[in-house]
Each structure stands twice: as C-alpha cells, then as structure tokens.
Amino acid sequence: MNTYLPNDDLPKHEPLEPGLISGSRLERVLKAGKFAVTAELNPPDSADPDDVYEAARPLGEVADALNATDASGANCHMSSIGICSLLTRAGYGTVYQISCRDRNRIAIQGDVLGAAAMGVRNVLCLTGDGVGAGDQPGAKPVFDFDSLSLLRTIRTMRDDGVFLSGRKIKTPPRLFLGAAENPCIEPHDWRPIRLGKKIDAGADFIQTNYVFDMPVFENFMRRVRDLGFDKRVFILVGVGPLASAKAARWMRSNVPGIHIPDSVIDRMEKAKKPAEEGKRICIELIQQIRGIEGVSGIHVMAYRREHQVSEIVLESGILKGRAVSDKARL
Amino acid sequence: MYRIRLFSVRHARAFEWIYKRVENMMVLMDPVFAKIGYNRVEKPIALLERGVKGLLFDCQMCGQCVLSSTGMSCPMNCPKQLRNGPCGGVRPGGYCEVKPQMKCVWCQAWEGADRMRENTRIHDVLPPVDRRLQGSSSWLRVSREKAAELRESRNAGKTAVAKAFSEARKIEPATAPLVPEPKNAVDREVRKT
Ligand code: SF4
Ligand code: SF4
C-alpha cells in the first residue's frame, strides 16, 4: 500500500494551557512545584530500536524525562535525535541534548525543527567536550555556536519564530530550554554568574554535572540564591553511583569536568562492597541535595549502573507522595 | 605570545583604557576613512591591527573583536573558540581541558574582567562569530558601526542576529554588525593577496 498517512502516535501541535512553554511532562512537574527526576540514558552502539527501549526501561519508571546524550565525551553512539524520536513515540518524556562540537548552525537549527516535529519538548544545550577526549580524536571540532549562543538562537526560533538568518518559521518549535552547569569546578567565583548568563540567554532549566562535593555545591547555591537565580530557573542537580574507587579515580582524571573529593574516594576504598557503598553515597547525596533551598530536582547519570537507578531514587524517598509507575510517560 | 598574552590580562585595566582611546580615535577618524574609502583603508589597517593585537593578545583576526567584554583575554585562543566561556571541562588550577599546559582562556577572561572598570560587560551573551569576517579589521568595523547613523539594515540575516543578541549589539557592535560591509572586508581572497 502506498499511502503516506501522518503518524497517529505523534503528539499533535495543539494549543497549550497558559503558563506553559512546551507542555512537556518535565515542565509540568517543575511548574507544579514537585521535585523532578531526570535520568541519562546510555545510548546504544546499535541500529536496533529495541536496544533503545531496553536502555529506557529501567529508568522510565522513576524519571520524568530521559536525557539522550549527543556523543558525550566525544564518543560515537546512536544520535540523540534518533533516540528521542523513538522514545517520544513510545510515550516517554525526553531531553534532546545538543552539543556544539559536531554540527554547525545550519545543521543544528534544522535538527531543532525536526526534533520538535517528532514530539521532542525538552532540549539541553551543551558546548560539548573537546574531540580529543573521545574515540575519534582526529575529527574536526566545529564549535560554530557555544552553549549560550545556541540557547539564544533556539529561544529566538521559539519566541520570535525566525531562524538566525531572519527567515520566518511557519510553526515555531515549542521547547523547554535547558543548559548545563558545573558548580564544583573552577572558576568557582564565576560559575554562579555564568549561570545567570545562561538564564539571560534563554535557559528555563539547568542540569548540573556530577555533584560529589557538598560544601562546594552549597557555596555555589548560596551565591545563586543571593543573586535570585533560583527564582528564575529550575535547577536539577547531577548525581550518580560510583562503581569502585578505581573507577572513580579513572573518571576524575579522564572525563573532562568531573570533580570527586578524596574523602568520597577514601570511603569507596574502605568499603567491603564498593558497589553497595557507591549506591549509599549516592542516596545520601540526593537526600542532602533535596534539603537545599533553590534546588528543583535531580538528574541521575548512572553510566553502566542503570539497574541501580530505580532503587536509588525510591530508597532516597524523594518521590514520596508522587505516584510511581511509568513516570517518564507523557 | 603566551607570556605576553597573560601579561595583557594581568593589566586588563590599563589595556581597557588604552583600547577605549584607540576605539574613540577610530570613531573620530570615520569621516576620514569614509572619504578615502573604507575599502582602500581595509588592507593597511588590518595589517596594522594584526601586528599590534597579534603581539599583545595573540589575536586571530576574527574581525569581531570582543576584548573589552572578555577581560582582554582573546576568546579565539580557546581551543573551542567559545564566545561565552568557560566550558565545563576546566582542569584544577584553572587549566584548559583541551590543552592542559595552557591556562583556560576564559578563566583568564573572568579574572581580567574583574580588574576592569566596566567589569560587567562579560555578563552579556555574545553571538556566534560571523566566519566571513575572518582576517578583516575589527577596528574599522567598530568605527563604521559606532559612527554611522544606524540605518535600518535591509539584510534580514544581520537584523535577526542583532535583535537576538541585542545586549551584545549595544556593547560590542562589531559582533552583530548592521552597516553594509565594504567589499575588501568580506572578500577573503582579495585580502590574502
Ligand atoms: S576577539 Fe577577535 S579581533 Fe579581538 S583579539 Fe581576539 S581574534 Fe583578535
Ligand atoms: S578549558 Fe577554557 S580555554 Fe579550554 S576549551 Fe574550555 S573554555 Fe576554552
């Protein structure tokens, strides 16, 4: 049969209730004042959609949205837009990550429209790690945009309905715009101000890199509150279980932008069952983060430890009072 | 040179002052340049600019100078060429993720900005670089932009960028120029010879 019908599974472009920008589940949860949970999905090295669904399953029951990474660490995997398209059709909330490393402004603006048409409602704008960090260090780094000019560009597409070329967009994308932040690395004094810059550029929510160092993070949040930024943006704090002291050390020296204090590594070293200890530390961190004023949720990055995510989130007690089941579904 | 570049950032306040004078002078020169023709002064001034700024800031001649918004630390020396840094990969001690022996250009920028009189210019979001302008004189662009009566630009692309990054347009007009470019400023082939 040669009939090309619109796919009925895809969300339609219907009017939104007032106060909403994208209508995504993540936006609704945050704006309702609930403590949100997002989780990072480990992208498959595969062309089989089942591998995507399988990776999503253990996360979907506790997360409001799943982040599909865009070749993070400059390693090649299935694309973020591909994963988001599949998961959106399957009813999950997704966060489409865009890194500025691999595509120029022409490609990115086109992909933003494509993703929005596929039903993607949340976007995370990232600068991206240098190509040298990944499995193809000979690649040409693009960095046509940086995370801030990217945010501003997508905001312009959404709110003014034009490309950066000035050409009109017939139906502008509806997107909840996110940016990353790395509160625990240098320059500590300027990180809160740069957060403000991201809000000015268009960020509606922030997902931070791993936070293992509570004193440093609390200082950061104090500054953020003094500047009033927590009132203007939703902050989701990055957490994740460590597998072992060795893995933690490896991450610290090989993955850009990860700060793990020695005290945490010591604790891992002394533990009889390191994986259990990693989980414990993660739960304790989540509970402490939950208590900090101005934090709106957590972002769980459990690379190769996806099976622990549900337990961690449920045992931490942050979802108390919220119905748990198929949470990532729209 | 790396050492001179670090020196310039340490003395960002002095350089801010000097730079402002240079800029004002360029703006005052606008009628002269206009008379001789911006097209004809493009090559010699670009050469001069390359020499002076190359020495002091390791200038890469992006054509859209933002030094006064980046603490006199040239962002084009960041391996990712960010215009709004630093990235999330800065190493302990403020060293660069990509080139670990080098101080992060953007950590330097925030420190430099802190020393400057107009220390909040670094808070404004800068637009992406217009790659066509690589190699052309930013001084002349600033002079044209600041001096010229800002006619509504006919070029939709330019207007959209200027509108999307309106704060940057105000403080660093060369980053989102509206005035029509003279041929020698946009034709890279001509500039090379
Ligand atoms: S910002 Fe551009 S013009 Fe200014 S010093 Fe750097 S490369 Fe040169
Ligand atoms: S560490 Fe600094 S200089 Fe290096 S890529 Fe990141 S922002 Fe640029």
Describe the structure.
The complex is a heterodimer of chains A (330) and B (193). By secondary structure, chain A is an alpha/beta fold. Chain A is built from eleven helices and eight strands. Chain A has a domain of 223 residues: TIM Barrel (Alpha-Beta Barrel). An eight-stranded parallel beta barrel of chain A has the order 1-2-3-4-5-6-7-8, surrounded by six helices. In chain A, helix 6 links the parallel strand 5 and strand 6. The model of chain A has no long low-confidence stretch (mean pLDDT 93). Chain B has 193 residues and is mainly alpha-helical. Chain B folds into two domains: 139 residues, no CATH class; 45 residues, no CATH class. Helices cover 51% and strands 0% of the residues of chain B. Chain B starts with a helix and ends with a helix. Classes of the chains: A alpha/beta (330), B mainly alpha (193). The interface between A and B is large, with 46 and 40 residues. The complex binds iron/sulfur cluster (2 copies).
List keywords for this structure.
heterodimer; A: 330 residues; alpha/beta; TIM Barrel; 8 strands; B: 193 residues; mainly alpha; 2 domains; 10 helices; binds iron/sulfur cluster
Instruction: Provide mean pLDDT of chain A, rounded.
Output: 93
Distance between the termini of chain B: 26 Å
Reported CATH architecture of the domain at 31-241 and 295-306 in chain A: Alpha-Beta Barrel
User: What is the count of β-strands of chain B?
Assistant: 0
Helix content of chain A: 25-40%
Count of all domains of chain B? 2
How is the CATH topology of the domain at 31-241 and 295-306 in chain A named?
TIM Barrel
Bound compounds, each kind once, are: iron/sulfur cluster
Largest interface, chains and sizes: A-B, 46 and 40 residues
Uncertain regions spanning at least 5 consecutive residues of chain A: none
Look at the helices and sheets of chain B and give the structural class.
mainly alpha
Low-confidence parts of chain B, pLDDT < 50 over ≥5 residues? none
The number of helical runs of chain A is 11
Number of helices of chain B: 10
Query: What is the CA-atom radius of gyration of chain B, in angstroms?
Result: 16 Å
Assembly level: heterodimer
Which bin fits the share of residues in helices of chain B?
40-55%
Strand order of the largest sheet of chain A: 1-2-3-4-5-6-7-8
